[in-house]
């Protein structure tokens, strides 16, 4: 499994989970400039509120939970956990999500 520069090329490696991976990742790639401006700049109402909401909603779940619910294969699950910045949050028992 290799993370490609193209979302489509990465999805092609994920076989059965490829379509789900595209559904999850393509909106972020398509709206990346607006998301970067809205999320990394000064606090303000987002220029593209729906894109910001679509980005924010999955981050409410721990990465492992999102990956378990979204994908059936271990490659897609592992990739998703590795991509999300909140993957390092800890459970109450000290283990990683």
Q: Can you lay out the helices and strands and say which pair or pack?
A:
Layout: H1 7-13, H2 18-30, H3 32-40, H4 49-56, H5 63-70, H6 74-83
Characterization of the model:
This protein is mostly helical. The chain has six helices and no strands. The protein has helices at residues 7-13, 18-30, 32-40, 49-56, 63-70, 74-83. Mean pLDDT is 80; it is low at 86-97.
Provide the descriptors you would attach to this structure in a database record.
97 residues; mainly alpha; 6 helices; disordered C terminus
Count of separate DSSP helical elements: 6
Taken in chain order, the helices and strands follow as: HHHHHH
Poorly predicted regions are 86-97
Q: What is the subunit organization of this protein?
A: single chain
- Major sheet size, sense and barrel closure: none
Structure described in brief:
By secondary structure, this protein is an all-alpha fold.
């Amino acid at each position: 499994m290799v993370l490609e520069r193209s979302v489509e090329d990465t999805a092609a490696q994920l076989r059965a989970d490829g379509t789900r991976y595209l559904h999850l990742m393509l909106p972020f790639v398509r709206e990346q400039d607006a998301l970067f401006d809205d999320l990394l700049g000064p606090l303000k109402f987002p220029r593209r509120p729906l894109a910001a909401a679509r980005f924010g909603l999955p981050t409410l779940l721990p990465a492992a939970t999102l990956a378990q619910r979204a994908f059936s294969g271990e490659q897609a699950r592992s990739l998703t956990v590795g991509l999300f910045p909140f993957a390092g949050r800890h459970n109450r028992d000290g283990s990683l999500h």
